[in-house]
Structures are given as structure tokens and as C-alpha cells.
């Protein structure tokens, strides 16, 4: 299981659920008990609670106590400490087990889904990014080329399947879930004048190389000593971005596809 900081999760999840149409298949208004597995800082837990309504109990679970503290403080929702492969919940205790950007960070997604199936009485759902199908446009041309190079290296160097795509559905079926459906949801992030504080922070992280350093281990695994040259080019690109922002000529759009996959638990006698 890969670990992430609270700041990283906030940056990458910001604005993801501006539209919630893709969550319709979770049938949240009908739920009484929902578990968000691998909840992190609780952004998705909050979305689930808002969509389910006051009559539903939504609980977040995560193995990282520091992230659970943030989730508890920022959402006010109940949380429990628990690994995705060993949830501290009895069989069939909740209507729905859901997760967001969790399976792509696990070495054996199907094992986690089998655990979710054990805990869920009716439904299991996962919202997973397809990091191999991200589209980027930028007025700083070197940004598009470098981001593609970094993304390809990251996909080669990471030790889990972060671009599962259709394989999410396959993992659901391998875990014994039935009537599996999938719907693609697009997270579009646009940076343009007037720039917000988060936009300025992103540019600074490019110029200092901090953003690249978040994935140094995976990148070095793929490109070796070339990482240092890549980091130099990345910082130069970041300085171009900062200069363009100062001139208010910088515009960037990124689209990350997420697959919302929903499966159902067979009769309890099913093995």
C-alpha cells in the first residue's frame, strides 16, 4: 500500500466532485450504513454523506492514523482505523462499501474487493483514476511534453496498476461481485487568470521541483540517474509557468478520467 500526505490528497482531489452525476449508480439516498474504505482525509466520505442524507450513517476507515485525524477534524464524521484487507467490521454490516483512488495503490486489488464483499450486505463501489489516459493542454509548450514524459516514466516505475481502466471491472468480477457496471467520470482542472492561491502554489511547486519529488522513488526506478536531468528540465519549465502567470498569459487544462465501478454482492450462501 502506497502512502500519501494529507496535502497531496487535498491537491489531487480538489474539485473532483463538482458534478456528482456519476455517483447515481451507488443509490446513496436509499442507504442506511455506508463505509468509505481507505478514506484518507475524508473528502470522499463527506461527499458520500452529503449524497446519502441525514438518515444514513457514513463511516470512514483508513490504516493511517494521521490521515484519520484530519478526516475526523475536517468532516466531523465517524472514522475507524482499519486496513483495506482487514476491515474491523463484521460480515454484511453495511449496505455499501465504497472507495476512491484506493485500488490503484494496492498490489492486489481483488483481495481488497473480496474483503469489501465480506463487509457489504448489498453493494461495492470503487472510483478509480485511469492515469494512463490523462490529457493536458498548456500555453507553456514544454509543460505538455514534460508531463507526458514524467507520466510515462511514473507508469513504468510504480509498483501498482495506477492505470487500471477496464481492469477495475475485471477485478470486481474476480472478487465474486455480480451485475458489475461502470461509468466514466472526468475531473477537469483549469488554471487561468485570475489565479487562485492553489494555482500559485502549484506553479511554485513546479519551479522548485517539489511536485516531481512527490514521485521521486517511482521515477528513479524507471529512469535511474536521468531523474536529475528530468528534475532540472522540470524546474526550468516551472519557472516559465511562474513568469507566464506574472504576465497573466498562462492557461492550463488537465482532464483525469475516473471509472466509477459498481458491483453487487450475491446471496450470502455464494462462495
From TrEMBL:
GO biological process: methylation
Coiled-coil portions: none
Taxonomic superkingdom: Archaea
Keyword Transferase: yes
Keywords: Methyltransferase, Transferase
SUPFAM superfamilies assigned to the protein according to its UniProt record, in alphabetical order: S-adenosyl-L-methionine-dependent methyltransferases
Domain Methyltransferase type residues, every copy: 35-121
One Pfam family, short name: Methyltransf_11
Gene3D superfamilies: Vaccinia Virus protein VP39
PANTHER family, per database record: METHYLTRANSFERASE
Protein name: Methyltransferase domain-containing protein
UniProt source species: Haloplanus rubicundus
